[in-house]
Amino acid sequence: MTIVNVGEAKTNLSRLLDAAVAGEEVIVARNGEPVVRLVPVRAPSVRELGFVPVATPEDRFAPLSGDELDGWT
User: Fold this and answer.
1) What CA–CA distance (Å, rounded) separates 58 from 52?
2) Which residue of 4, 9, 21, 60 has the fewest CB atoms within a 10 Å radius of its CB?
3) Which domain holds residue 33?
4) How far apart are CA 15 and CA 7, in angstroms?
């Protein structure tokens, strides 16, 4: 873990960013008090929608027959 004050962080920002991306914990302090932690931005993981497989019949979106249409009126 690296703890640096704001002045040192300004001077060495590129080095601190490289350290954070490499997995090191970098904390920036103001007057010796921790203020922020530098962490790398990670791409969001791919998520699947839903968790119960549902079978969809091939004719689900086929036009309704005349009798089926009459039932809606």
Assistant:
1) 19
2) 60
3) 1-41
4) 14
Cα(45)–Cα(34) distance, integer angstroms: 30
Beta partners for 27? Answer: 3, 37
Distance CA 1, CA 20 (A): 10
Residues constituting the chain: 73
Three-state secondary structure along the chain? CEEEEHHHHHHCHHHHHHHHHCCCCEEEEECCEEEEEECCCCCCCCCCCCCCCCCCCCCCCCCCCHHHHHCCC
**How many structural domains does the chain have?**
1
CB-CB contact of 25 with 40 (8 Å):
no
**Tens digits of residue pLDDT in 41-55:** 988 888 777 767 777
**pLDDT for 31:** 93
